[in-house]
Write a structure and sequence with these properties.
This protein is of the alpha/beta class. It has a single domain, classed as TIM Barrel. It is built from twelve helices and eight strands. The protein has helices at about 20-30, 45-60, 70-80, 95-105, 120, 125-135, 145, 150-155, 165-170, 185-200, 210-220, 230-250; strands spanning about 10-15, 35-40, 60-65, 85-90, 135-140, 160-165, 200-205, 225-230. Strands 1-2-3-4-5-6-7-8 form an eight-stranded parallel barrel, surrounded by eight helices. Helix 11 links the parallel strand 7 and strand 8 (about 225-230). The chain is globular and about 65 Å long. The relative contact order is 0.13.
Length: about 250
């Protein structure tokens, strides 16, 4: 079984937008520590998600799935599909966090129903180990979530948080770019990280540049993601085409 995410060393991951097991295999072969299949903004269906998650697992990468906003049943479903962790977006209150924790953990910690084929993939004693070996990360991406972060991180069943810096900035009335140095945004990030530290929970965050990665490492984050495979595909492909055009001339009419 894949080892669960732990605090040391820093785990580096990537988002998967293309709902293709072949892409999952390539990402696993590259050596990413964790890959997040995005079913909040992405287009994967249940069957494709199942295949992608288990392909990642077999490639030696920790498969994580992000569900939709505010649907506890999707948390349980993601774990039954084979995710080793679930990210829940826009969890902005203690009550919302409690609902997600109940769905993610088996009794007595929660009320997750026993079923699915995870035991065939992860071992017959999966139900006894799942509460400690699967992750529930709630996203802190709204100022309301920051204002409740100490209570949420103290909650049993919540394994950590995943900060969405851009949505957090938007919720604070800041622009979607160049918000990083704003004092209020930095204070919100610091407060969230401190709450994770105080309760021994994982602090995870998106990053958007190598300089951003270096800063997050120095701040003490446990797990980072760096963009998505779709961004790399579009960025590299667009750049290459532009270079080719310099040698071949402008594009023909289409």
């Amino acid at each position: 079984m894949n080892q669960p995410l732990t605090k040391k060393p820093i785990r580096v991951g990537i988002w998967q937008q293309f709902p293709l097991p072949m892409v999952s295999r390539y990402l696993g072969q590259m050596g990413w520590d964790w890959v997040i299949l995005d079913m909040q903004h992405g287009c994967a269906n249940t069957e494709t998600a199942y295949e992608c998650l288990h392909t990642l697992h077999m490639a030696g990468t920790t498969p994580i799935l992000r569900v939709s906003v505010g649907v506890p049943a999707e948390v349980q479903r993601a774990l039954d599909l084979g995710a080793r962790g679930v990210i829940v977006p826009m969890v902005n209150s203690l009550a919302e966090a409690q609902d997600m924790a109940q769905a993610a953990k088996y009794p007595p910690l929660g009320c997750r129903s026993l079923g699915g084929d995870a035991a065939w993939h992860y071992g017959e004693d999966y139900p006894e180990r799942a509460n400690s070996e699967t992750l529930l990360l709630v996203q802190v991406e709204h100022i309301d979530a920051v204002n409740a972060v100490e209570d949420v991180m103290a909650l049993p069943g919540i394994d950590g948080c995943f900060i969405g810096p851009t949505d957090l900035a938007l919720s604070m009335g800041l622009a979607r770019k160049d918000y990083e140095q704003h004092p209020a945004h930095r204070a919100a990030m610091t407060r969230t990280l401190a709450a994770c530290r105080a309760h021994g929970k994982l602090a995870c965050c998106n990053t958007y540049s190598l300089a951003d990665v270096q800063e997050k490492v120095s701040q003490g984050f446990d797990c980072l993601t760096f963009k998505s495979e779709a961004e790399f595909f579009m960025g590299a492909g667009t750049s290459l085409l532009a270079q080719l055009r310099k040698h071949t001339g402008p594009a023909a009419d289409r």
